[in-house]
């Protein structure tokens, strides 16, 4: 039997040593050998299109023209959105876009400014 610890996220016994950390091949969780929890273990959080972590109050830039449902308006590429709020769900950013109003965005269509 292996002397590797079980995965703290999914309790899998198939973990392996990857140099400075342990990795679970089943769920993709990574954690350090010295016992500190990683971002993935603590909940990966919400990331932008470039993989940067987003937080409440950040400013983001839209990277694609987005049609506004139920309107003829479009949120143009390069539009800066200030003071975002992160929420659970498919559209994980709650914000107010200048000239359009309050709306929800998907994090894959923004980058951190």
UniProtKB/TrEMBL annotation:
Keyword Hydrolase: yes
Family label: Belongs to the YjdM family.
Protein name: Phosphonoacetate hydrolase
Pfam family, any one: Zn_Ribbon_YjdM
Ranges for domain Protein YjdM C-terminal: 46-113
Molecular function terms from GO: hydrolase activity
Presence of keyword Lyase: no
Species, as recorded: Vreelandella aquamarina
Keywords, ordered alphabetically: Hydrolase
Domain Protein YjdM N-terminal: 4-32
């Amino acid at each position: 039997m292996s002397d590797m610890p079980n995965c703290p996220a999914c309790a899998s016994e198939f973990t392996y040593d990857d140099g400075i950390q342990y990795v679970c091949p089943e769920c993709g969780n990574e954690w350090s050998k010295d016992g500190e929890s990683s971002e993935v273990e603590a909940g990966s959080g919400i990331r932008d299109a470039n993989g940067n972590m987003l937080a409440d109050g950040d400013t983001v830039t839209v990277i694609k023209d987005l049609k506004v449902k139920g309107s003829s308006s479009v949120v143009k590429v390069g539009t800066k959105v200030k003071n975002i709020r992160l929420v659970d769900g498919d559209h994980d950013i709650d914000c107010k876009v200048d000239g359009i109003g309050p709306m929800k965005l998907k994090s894959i269509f923004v980058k951190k400014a």
